[in-house]
């Protein structure tokens, strides 16, 4: 097998395993047995070890000395810290974006908001989750892009990845109802309006409120499931 093919297998293993950890296919603290992973993904040890090493670096997997790997644990203290850090950083990035973003930035926000608002016609709840989540991430990324700071955006992406496991607990309980989708649509529309008016203090406060909304719901879910 050539180098490119090996790299592609490693990338595939990483994306599949990361998605399954985020979506809760593996429980926090669960041991990731190589035999089980090989059977689940149809891949060899090499690509799987590469994927696991990358996920260790992203704090989604923990390496156990001489004994393999486990899914990282979850806790209410980590939930609170991750969401607060993300909200603080997003607030700073938004303020910079409002200062630095031009007409193209505004147009991209409007385009992504329009696409997100049209997530209604899908065939299953799983498809709804995939489509809405992809478009929602693109919407917030379009807003953040106006800060014009690759380094800040890289830190933002890292925090977003670590928040995802917690966020998906909330998504699965809230995003499937028509009422929830309409509530989010109005929330996003109001946020866009304030951003485009260049009211940085108000936009920053609205963004923080928007990002912190799931925390009480996630807290309740974690307690109910014995994760806290």
State the CATH superfamily name of the largest domain: GntR ligand-binding domain-like
Largest beta sheet: strand ordering: 1-3-2
Specify the biggest β-sheet. 3 strands, antiparallel
Overall SS class = mainly alpha
CATH architecture of the largest domain: Up-down Bundle
Determine the mean pLDDT.
89
Q: How far from one another are the termini?
A: 45 Å
Q: Round the Cα radius of gyration to an integer and report it.
A: 19 Å
Q: Fill in the CATH topology of the largest domain.
A: Four Helix Bundle (Hemerythrin (Met), subunit A)
Main attributes?
mainly alpha; Arc Repressor Mutant, subunit A; globular; 228 residues; 2 domains; Four Helix Bundle (Hemerythrin (Met), subunit A); three-stranded antiparallel beta sheet
Structure commentary:
Pfam families: FCD, GntR. This is GntR family transcriptional regulator. With 228 residues, the protein is mainly alpha-helical. It folds into two domains: 1-71, Arc Repressor Mutant, subunit A (Orthogonal Bundle); 76-225, GntR ligand-binding domain-like (Four Helix Bundle (Hemerythrin (Met), subunit A), Up-down Bundle), CATH 1.20.120.530. Helices cover 75% and strands 4% of the residues. It is built from ten helices and three strands; from the N terminus they run αβααββααααααα. Strands 1-3-2 form a three-stranded antiparallel beta sheet. The radius of gyration is 19 Å and the shape is globular. The termini are far apart. The mean pLDDT is 89.
């Amino acid at each position: 097998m050539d180098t490119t093919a090996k790299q592609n297998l490693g990338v595939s293993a990483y994306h599949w395993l990361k998605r399954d950890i985020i979506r809760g296919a593996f429980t926090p603290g669960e041991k990731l047995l190589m035999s089980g992973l090989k059977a689940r993904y149809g891949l060899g040890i090499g690509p799987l070890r590469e994927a696991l090493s990358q996920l260790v670096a992203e704090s989604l997997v923990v390496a156990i000395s001489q004994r393999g790997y486990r899914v990282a644990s979850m806790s209410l203290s980590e939930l609170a810290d991750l969401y607060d850090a993300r909200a603080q950083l997003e607030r700073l990035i938004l303020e910079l974006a409002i200062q630095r973003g031009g007409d193209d930035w505004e147009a991209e926000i409007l385009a992504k908001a329009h696409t997100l608002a049209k997530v209604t016609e899908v065939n299953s709840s799983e498809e709804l989750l995939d489509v809405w989540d992809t478009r929602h991430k693109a919407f917030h990324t379009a807003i953040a892009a106006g800060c014009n700071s690759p380094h800040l955006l890289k830190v933002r992406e890292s925090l977003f990845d670590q928040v995802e496991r917690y966020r998906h607990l909330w998504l699965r309980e809230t995003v499937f109802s028509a009422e929830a989708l309409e509530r989010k649509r109005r929330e996003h529309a109001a946020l866009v309006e304030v951003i485009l008016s260049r009211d940085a203090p108000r936009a920053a406060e609205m963004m923080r409120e928007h990002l912190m909304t799931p925390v009480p719901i996630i807290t309740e879910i974690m307690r109910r499931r014995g994760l806290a």
